[in-house]
Amino acid sequence: MTNIAIFVSGSGTNCENIIRHFAHHPSIRPVLVVSNKPEAYALVRAERLGVKTAVVSGATLRDANAMLPLLEQHHVDFIVLAGFLLMIPDYLSTAFEGRIINIHPALLPKYGGRGMYGHHVHEAVKAAGEQETGITIHHVTSVCDGGEIIFQARTALTSEDSPEDIAAKVHELEQTYFPQVIERIILELPQ
Questions:
Q1: Per-residue pLDDT reduced to its tens digit, 121-165
Q2: C-alpha angle with apex 153: 151 to 159, nearest 5 degrees?
Q3: Nearest to 32 by CA among 11, 14, 47, 17
Q4: Catalytic member of 21, 24, 25, 104
Q5: 24 catalytic, yes or no?
């Protein structure tokens, strides 16, 4: 069994989608949802679906002596960042090398890096007059949005699309592809 921790900072629609996708999976199980924000609605979603939760401050996240025991306590094998807004510290990306991934709401390397998350990305895509955007699922390293790209999906844009329209199109891609890609990556891991 591969146990997943999902790291979140917001409402958690992707988090809930991932939990539901793996609810009856024979070899993959979400066991923990971690948030840096105690008010994140993702925590409510996780608890309703029977997944344990933890709130960690930025200082706790940066403290290997606090975070690693938390993950070990829940037997976490793989980490999924689903709208987590803090940088992953080096010790964690090293400890989970090849077993920690992120989803980004644009086609990296465009519109990535510090400050590029959520509506900031969609506003930048709109301002640039892009004719397409999408999602990127990538490995997490010490470089913000700099890990190896695993998967991208694209959607066409029109000049009439608002940043909110762009967000809706991207969210549809996230809901469709993120759980499938997580499953594929985990099943391809050496056991």
A1: 999 999 999 999 999 999 999 899 999 999 999 999 999 999 999
A2: 145
A3: 47
A4: 104
A5: no
